Amino acid sequence: MKRLLFALFCLLSLTARANEPIATTADATESENFNPGEMILHHIGDSHEWHWFSIGEDHYTTYLPVIAYRAGSGLSVFSSRHLAEGEVHEGLKLEHEHLVSEDGSKVYDFSITKNVATLMLSAVLLLVVFTTVARGYSKRGTGSPRGIQSFFEPVIVFIRDEVAKKSIGPKYERYMPYLLTVFFFIWFNNLMGLMPGGANLTGNIAVTLTLALMTLLITLFSSNKNYWAHIFATPGVPKLLLPIMIPVELIGIVVKPFSLMVRLFANITAGHIVTLSFISLIFIFRNIGIAPVSLAFGLFINLLELLVAILQAYIFTLLTAMYIGGAVEDHHDADYQMGGGEDADPAHVPAH
Amino acid sequence: MSSLLPDSGSPKPDADSDRLRTVARYSGIGAQMAATIGLSTWAGYWLDQHFQSKTPWFTLGLMLLGLFAALYNVIRAVSKGE
């Protein structure tokens, strides 16, 4: 831990020092026109084409389909090649990666963007991997696993034993499909985002919003009467305080998935920004001496991100399981009094 | 599905996984606290803008409510135990 803090301190102080020369050598950056902020935001954002890399002026790009609906002119489907370099096609153009119509009418953008393409790709990958794993079980039963099955079995067992069973209790089995899906979806997409050319899918707030919304809905639909009794008539709280306690509890329902959403989004996006910032240092300083340092730190952060990828997937799954566990719990013994526990005095709580 | 997977038997005390679990749990509580205050303050700010109030009563009120809710939820989550 101490070493980690030291490393973080080094990183932070390095970026602080790196800022100084930029201000003093403004003319150098002006002539080259390298804007690290713009480059980084472009990398972590969504786009209508998939830009792989550039050599000089040659750009290697995969053009993705644009699907747009306008009330007046209906559906238009064409390649995003026609929109490159700010061109106008069928009355549509791109403004900062945002599809707008020339006459200002409302555009519903259903395009297969880079993120949507990645989403589909990861769905196919997950299906292929896990049908293979499932086929292994239907063929060999509980016998020794083979191939890719033997890699995923410990992970699946970990999610079942350490996450689901411990957080949800005896009713865990119903929620295993969702927990496993969400864990592997986040993990796979975090890793795919770290690959060169990969999209920042789990660092997109819309994706994490959808995941958090699903957690919220599953929690609400699986909640029992104890859960709601706890919100609208918190045990041990005087009736007069209920007008305050009910909003407080209701805020809690919304905030739990909200914090899930922000945590995943912020962690993955921050990782991408830090890695790209270190790579940008080379182009900011334009000095060969800085390259080894910048690459070493970039590599270090990238390796750290490998850990963060599985850690964030685990945290999302664990907290989801805990929220579900709170909703399906049969009784709240320990909750009736502050600091309650196994041997706490039941005080004013009636037996039930 | 789970009947096909080998059962690891009775849950044995696994120190490493329990520590990881605790870290994740408490970091979740902290983030939740920040989110509660942030979200309610933002809601109050939005309401003040919407009603164009001269004194930001909504911001103040909802911020204090959020603060209270955050503290209440932290105390409850921490005292709940495992």
How would you describe what is shown here?
Chain B: InterPro entries: ATPase_put. Chain B: Keywords: Membrane, Transmembrane, Transmembrane helix. Chain B: It holds the Pfam family ATPase_gene1. Chain B: This is F0F1-ATPase subunit. Chain A: It is a multi-pass membrane protein. The complex is a heterodimer of chains A (352) and B (82). Chain A is mainly α and 352 residues long. Among the domains of chain A are: 65 residues, no CATH class; 180 residues. Helices cover 61% and strands 10% of the residues of chain A. Chain A has ten helices and seven strands. In chain A, the strands form three sheets. Chain A has a three-stranded antiparallel beta sheet, with no helix packed on it. In chain A, a hairpin with a 2-residue loop joins strand 1 and strand 2. In chain A, helix 3 packs across helix 9. The longest helix of chain A has 44 residues. Chain A starts with a helix and ends in a 24-residue tail after the last helix. Chain B has 82 residues and is mostly helical. Chain B has one domain. Chain B is built from two helices and no strands. The longest helix of chain B is centred in the middle third of the chain and has 37 residues. Chain B is elongated. At the A-B interface, helix 5, helix 9 and helix 10 of A face helix 1 and helix 2 of B.
Descriptive terms for the model:
heterodimer; A: 352 residues; mainly alpha; two-stranded antiparallel ribbon; 61% helix; disordered C terminus; B: elongated; proton-transporting ATP synthase activity, rotational mechanism (chain A); signal (chain A); ion transport (chain A); CF(0) (chain A); transmembrane helix (chain A)
Give the arrangement of secondary structure elements.
The complex is a heterodimer of chains A (352) and B (82).
Chain A: H1 2-24, H2 26-32, H3 36-44, E1 49-55, E2 58-63, E3 65-70, E4 74-79, E5 92-95, E6 98-101, E7 107-109, H4 114-140, H5 148-168, H6 176-194, H7 205-221, H8 225-232, H9 242-285, H10 290-328
Antiparallel strand pairs in A: 1-2, 3-4, 3-7, 5-6
Helix pairs in contact in A: 1-9, 3-9, 4-5, 4-6, 5-6, 5-10, 6-10, 7-9, 7-10, 9-10
Chain B: H1 15-51, H2 57-80
